[in-house]
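hey can u check if this looks right to u? its 170 residues, i copy pasted from the old doc so theres a chance i mangled smth
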Amino acid sequence: MSRGVWSLTALLAAAAIAGCAPSTGSGNTPGAAPGPAASRDSATMHEAARAFSAAYVRGDARAMAEAYTDDAVIFPEGTPAIEGREAIERYWTLGPGRRITHHRITPTRIEVVGNTAYDHGVFEVSGTNDGEAWGPGHGKYVVVWKRGSDGRWRMQLDIWNRSPAPGAGN
């Protein structure tokens, strides 16, 4: 698939996550139930992921880039790593005739450890190229989130790749 088709997260971050119940934790005590702060942080990342997906469907690359830290790195499938918010915005800018019509991120697990969080899950994406529909495509992702001095969670590292549709030989 072409550039920008196989996205997260990344998200983020990032989807219609209603009904998703990812595992969260403080990272301090293995197996411990998530505390209220970790649950709030996880919910914040879910919202950031929904906003990311909504921006992708709108074609708003600037809003997508704002979901990343200034020093973020993304790792698109089949391309070199892309560093920095400006370069990431260029990556997410769709070319003429390209449109994303559906993007959903479903976290499997989010673990919060201080001002860092580790998130992995799956995504689904569909779109059109020159009016011709494609998708849905499916994939998996890993995102490392950082909480900034402003208290906002942003993606610092974002990697994704394709996988079979659920139930298709997983």
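Residues 1-33 have pLDDT under 50 and may be disordered.
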